Amino acid sequence: MSPLDGAAARPGILSPMSASTTASTPTRWLYGPLTDLALGCGGLYALAFAAHAASGPAFERAFPAGLLPLGALVLGTPHYGATLLRVYQRSADRRAYRLFGVQASLAIALLFVIGVYDVTVGSWLLTLYLSWSPWHYSSQNYGIACLFLGRRGVSLGPVDKRLLHASFWLSWLMVLVSVHVENPQGAAYAPVELGGIAYRSIPLGIPRSVAAFLLAGLAFAYLNVLLASLVRLRARASWRDLGPTLALLALQALWFSVPVLSRATLIGSDLAPLDPYRQADTFFWIAFGHFAQYLWITSYYARSTGDAPRRSRFLWRAFAAGALVWGIPSLLFAPDLLGVRAFDAGLAALIASAVNVHHFVLDGAIWKLRDSRIARVLIRRPADAAGEAIAPPARRRPGWHVLAGGFAVVFLAINLFGTLEIEYGFRRAALAGDVERLEVAARRLSWLGRDHPGLRAQLALFAEHAGDPETGVREIRRSLALHPTAGAWVILGRLEEQAGRRDGARAAYREALALDPAHSEARGASLRLETGSR
Asked: What domains appear along the chain, each with residue ranges and CATH number?
């Protein structure tokens, strides 16, 4: 579920297109046509998609993959925080959403803590996130489509509502099948790069032949339902009134339906946004579109209800709230405190999974167009909602306010400088062979609590090539402490051999084989040492 997931799909419940809401003609837009089409209907994402498709490498040079997490920092953090404010800011809302705000939240927190130490539990939490996320995005598109129809006085019957909802639902089902196909490497939808981290998506294992059949059937149903919905919508409204809803149907296709079908058939895969090898980068851009859409609607609601008359104040408060749920776990469960793996070796993925699942649960409970207060604000004129008294949020204690704001600043600084150091001090310095810059980056990331196992392993490799095994051993042992992998154990084995410590090398290769019995270099080196010892 997502903001604005309304009753339009549920006959018998107050709908945003019902007669009661069309008695007074609402304003057609929230902020105005340009802002609403750019943010609410995905116009900016469509421009980014077109620019990426047209320019390819030039677009990627302008927006390097390593810096895309900064977009998630700036847009994603307040996107989560906006829902936290909606649930926890008012005492009445805290009581109303106690089941989700307390019990469900504690259950998710418990799963996260267990997942920190149990890779299987963490992997299941990651799998739940990857499966649920596209539905969260899809239902938000559906809800906003309902919003624009309601604001234009378009009244839909039960069949119209079901068809419109089914088009988004079928689009998500195509994504779900591609997520859960057996051996999902190169699957049609993989929003995060899972290589080199502790947690893995655990697909249901749909056989590829069955998945191909299911995708074909779902695509056929999707196209037919979409066409039927368009026909029925056109019978009830002009093209002008349908414009924003049509844009959202196109956005849904651009986010999910088109990429899934392109990657399943390889049609259009020569376009950069549809390239299977660029899935992680494309997912970031889809996420940016969703985050902007979410902030667009929640900031309007906050301003209209008097929660935050100034948009900048709302966005900062939302950022601070989001920083708390992202930042506290990353500090407490760092490997040098309560955790066992580095931020970039699995902790970040686990936090993202828990935070997003929590967000989906809260979001599905609170942002409903069938909620009379939300419907009055978002569907009718602001003046129509003015008659309903809304209790102001409880006054915050200045001390807590200052602490939350201070933590948000620290969180922003850590993520900003951490991302820049990994991009420029690690990736680019490694390509240039700049060992001195790598060492500087290692120190800085350590100060920030973001020590990177890959960076330490890279320093160990440079030390090996320079004939300095002692430095290499020190660096690779730090890498292993942050995130043990078979490859890192093999590097340690080679360094121990270089230092003349055959027993240490044998032990390292045994550890590598314990993690990956099929590792060819570890097997060959272990056999060579064992044979040589006889």
From this structure: 7-385 (no CATH), 413-533 (1.25.40.10)
